[in-house]
Amino acid sequence: MPFxxxxxxxxxxxxxxxxxxxFSLVGVLIGVTFLIAVVSIVQGMNVYMTDxxxxxxxxxxxxxxxxxxxxxxxxxxxxxxxEWWRRPYITxxxxxxxxxxxxxxxxxxxxxxxxxxVHYAGRQASDIEVFSADAPIFTIRNYDIAAxxxxxxxxxxxxxxxxxxxxxxxxxxxxxRDPLGKTVTIRSIPYRVVGVVAKxxxxxxxxxxxxxxxxxxxAAQRWxxxxxxxxxxxxxxxxxxxxxxxxxxxxxxxxxxRQLKPTQANNFHLQTAxxxxxxxxxxxxxxxxxxxxxxxxxxxVGGIVIMNIMLMAVAERTHEIGIRKALGxxxxxxxxxxxxxxxxxxxxxxxxGIGLGIGLAFLVKSTTPLPAAVAPWSIVVGVALGVAxxxxxxxxxxxxxxRLDPIAALRAE
Amino acid sequence: MTDxxxxxxxxxxxxxxGTETVSALRGVSxxxxxxxxxxxxxxxxxGKSTLMNLIGCLDTPTRGEYRLNGQEVSxxxxxxxxxxxxxxxxxxxxxFNLLPRATALQNVELPLVYAGxxxxxxxxxxxxxxxxxxxxxxxxxxxxxxxxxxxxRVAIARALVNQPSILLADEPTGNLDSVTSEEIMRVFATLxxxxxTVVLVTHEPDxxxxxxxxxxxxxxxxxxxxxxxxxxxx
Lengths: 413, 234
Fold this sequence. Notes:
The structure holds two protein chains of two kinds.
Chain A: H1 3-16, H2 18-24, H3 26-57, E1 62-66, H4 78-86, H5 92-101, E2 106-120, E3 123-133, H6 137-140, E4 145-148, H7 153-157, E5 162-165, H8 167-174, E6 183-186, E7 189-197, E8 202-203, E9 206-207, E10 211-215, H9 221-224, E11 232-237, H10 240-257, E12 269-272, H11 273-316, H12 318-326, H13 331-367, H14 376-402, H15 406-411
Parallel strand pairs in A: 3-10, 5-7
Antiparallel strand pairs in A: 1-11, 1-12, 2-3, 2-6, 2-11, 4-7, 5-10, 6-7, 8-9
Chain B: E1 4-17, E2 20-33, E3 37-41, H1 48-55, E4 63-68, E5 71-72, H2 78-88, E6 89-92, H3 104-115, H4 119-132, H5 148-160, E7 166-170, H6 178-193, E8 197-201, H7 205-208, E9 213-218, E10 221-227
């Protein structure tokens, strides 16, 4: 019997018994839904983590010279933490030395950060991130200026009391009026607004536009920076190739400045986007490793359900099989009919599962800050699994059907 | 006889029931020529059904030979028998045995599906077969939308569609009222007049009277073989 004919016949049978068909393909449906949804969410997270999280937080081709990591995923032992706390701070002289002696093309910026309340004309905005930074920070952190200007290296040298503010903060304090030239107060010190940074959007649902940047030397430095040091020195290499070179150079400089012996470990930390992603990579690897197992369980269950349904179908349709055999159906015709029916049933389940999985992924995307991106390969795998499970589950019932004796089968009702 | 469609020699069929062996057929030798109209009669337990199953290639004999249209079929494999059933035999059953979910046309197409015909040819030939039994306007009806007589005519169309050597009918009027029975018997008579070989299994003498020849079975043996030549009512 031609293949398409068999599929059409199978679809007719499935349609004739909608409810029973639905229950029989629930297992496969759940398995494939799960596969698509998890892959979509993990894949989406991957894209998000690399594009948004790492590059926003750390910057492209950028690393940070720090006393200890600021982004960690997973557990850190108390011994490690104690070792971190014993480390010396990165000092102003470290920063100056690196900036002056780095041969690899790169720009550097000192950076300290803290949180404060920003006041303007009786209004206030709390929980605002305050950066004390050198002028290149705008390039390194990819801050486009939407209005006004960034502060200059000269203003940093002069410790000018100016700020560049984030988009959301500008909205909160000025509500559509022009913030340029106005004076805001942070911890009782007035600063003149010279620029507004273009909207950055959100990260995991948290706005990235609630900040002010002041020149590193301005008054805020007294409370943004740790005592006798700086939080981090940001180094942005000219390109991906220079990144490794710059890191090697900085590592060597820091080790020699701190007179570390070759056997001693670094007592400072070079933080990169890749490093920040390490924890996430571990999580996604575990998810991808566990996924086949979870999907396999539901598919095996789904397969067993389908096999049972097919055995029932063979029993119920013994008479039909008898008629077909009397009219000249060979064993392989009957075998093909039931295997195709089983595979079609399971594939229909898989297709619904794909739809449901995509729907679920988008539901997660729209209701939570978690992103989702449907991976085309997961759809292909979903359909292939549906066909394979159905065919496998159909073999035994179909072979029983094909071996029925036509006389006995015709007598059955 | 060279024009014998069916040639059986000393054909026997035994069934094993636990430790006992039951002989349903104890050696039947008979020849049926092309375009004969034969009725097989006998009381229940006489071996009628067993003989019909053997003629229809649904079963193989324990002993003896059976040549169908020149082919020795008594030792064939399951799949070879399926092929013979498909090409040589047109079954008409007492209970019609139509697929309930399929339309009349789809039911009639079924033997052609297993013969491996393309969709277009199948539909053309099935339509033609339905027209031969006068059901050209019932093609897309399902069995439960038709009367018993119409159902049986669909079954006859299905039996004819692959141009079989023999039309094998098992109590074709057993589930029909007498008026409809007459109608179906007229269809058989017409087909016979057109050259079709017809083998009819029945226990009703009225029905058997339509045939030209009556084979009477008793206790698994041929008790009589009566020729009653008459002109088929066209």
